[in-house]
Give the backbone structure.
Amino acid sequence: MGQPRFADTTLHIGRLQRVLSPPIIPEVFLGDTRLVGRWRNEPFEYDLPPLKHHVLSAKYAGEGLSSLKIGRRIICAPSMAGTFTLAPRGHSGVWRAEGAVEVSNIFLGHERLLACADQVGNGRAPELLDRVNFSDPRMVTIMTWINEEVSSGGATSHLYIEQLLDLVCLQLIKAHSGTTMPVVLGTRGLAAWQVKPVADYMRDNLAKNIKLQELADVVSLSRFHFCTAF
């Protein structure tokens, strides 16, 4: 059997909103992950095909009901500020929103999620759940921080956003997977001998765009384990 075919995420999110393209951030993050800054979504009804990315949406303001119809199953919830919506990669269904909402988005690359699962979920691929205006304050907070960092454009923004995106992956595995996937993480932070070379590396390279993987390499840790400890 051939590989499943997935539709272009940016193209179909644009069609859903009848725009040429959502206001996607030019910078591409690890695992082909893309970000969309805060923008206004008008009411819509759209038969969304299986997309290439996991599409996450944090709501900052909204009204009316939103729903997802998959076969005979319907998920429906009010569009409230502080809620979270997830369209997992490869899932299809008819999405409908009665009112306008303000959101920010993450188009999360599947390879990035799998890399996180390899590190903390015993290597099993997580089966993510469809979520419609779901209450997850932790996820919404992380996505809000990402959106704020995108807007700030500071010297360390890329590094900070990469670390926050790792936390997004961890939260998806922990709270939005169809099978129980215990996240196995060390509870200790970096040792003193590890902190100094990392701090020195950051000080010596403040003028460049430091990657999270670079810091992890300094102390020979995986990116996800470094993120948790640091």
Q: What stands out?
A: Residues 183-187 have pLDDT under 50 and may be disordered.
